[in-house]
Amino acid sequence: MKTIEVDEELYRYIASHTQHIGESASDILRRMLKFTPGQQAVRAAPAAVAQSMQARAEPQQAVPVAPSVTAPAAAQQPRDKVRAMRELLLSDEYAEQNKAVNRFMLVLSTLYSLAPQEFAAATETLHGRTRTYFAGDEQTLLQGGNHTKPKPVPGTPYWVITNTNTGRKRSMIETIMQAMQFPVELTDKVCGTI
């Protein structure tokens, strides 16, 4: 593994092309450059390099690009979900969250991004005795009372009540992860970090 230094602007540009949590800079660059493992590096002629440098110096317009989506093999998907959750727990972003509610929201966002349909099925049956925990809009959750403090789950169409104790938040995560068939050990570990 080699290390290269990049300026802040380039770093942010590369990071903005992240498709899933835990994706390495090498993976992002390989995808952006359409470089496959084992492919021979092409050595550019000095004139081509100078031309390329000049083109980069000129202002460019951003062109929206649709991300290519490939369907993972069925056997590989559960392993990828587990890996993604483990990477979330080890990430700087997660470690920087100093409030349980922020970690709760980050875990919910990640779970949704891994399997939206499974997440939807898990949240449909998740509710308390007198309140709904998840809904597609704020008003539905406010029917349980103005004190529920509904917040949108980032990157999802869902809202969740946040005025619950940490134990309830852990229970909600546990129920969702069990429904999404995560290993018990990982579920316990994630819940323990909330």
Structure description:
By secondary structure, the protein is mostly helical. The protein folds into 2 domains: 8-57, Arc Repressor Mutant; 76-193, Replication modulator SeqA, C-terminal DNA-binding domain (Up-down Bundle). It is 52% helix and 4% strand. It contains 10 helices and 3 strands; from the N terminus they run αααααααβαββαα. It has a 3-stranded antiparallel β-sheet with strand order 1-3-2. A hairpin with a 6-residue loop joins strand 2 (150-152) and strand 3. Helix 4 packs antiparallel against helix 6, helix 6 packs across helix 7 and helix 9 (166-179) packs antiparallel against helix 10. It is elongated, with a radius of gyration of 21 Å. 20% of the residues are buried. Residues 52-76 have low confidence and may be disordered. Residues 100-101, 163-169 are annotated as: Interaction with DNA. It is found in: Cytoplasm.
Quickly count the helices. Answer: 10
CATH class of the largest domain: Mainly Alpha
Distance between the termini: 33 Å
Count of domain modules: 2
Features:
single chain; 194 residues; mainly alpha; Arc Repressor Mutant; Replication modulator SeqA, C-terminal DNA-binding domain; 2 domains; 3-stranded antiparallel β-sheet; 10 helices; 52% helix; sequence-specific DNA binding; SeqA_DNA-bd_C; Negative modulator of initiation of replication
Topology diagram in text:
Blueprint: H1 8-15, H2 25-33, H3 46-57, H4 76-90, H5 92-95, H6 100-114, H7 116-124, E1 134-135, H8 138-142, E2 150-152, E3 159-161, H9 166-179, H10 184-193
Antiparallel strand pairs: 1-3, 2-3
Helix pairs in contact: 4-6, 6-7, 6-9, 7-9, 9-10
Subunit structure: Homodimer. Polymerizes to form helical filaments.
Organism: Chimaeribacter coloradensis
Protein name: Negative modulator of initiation of replication
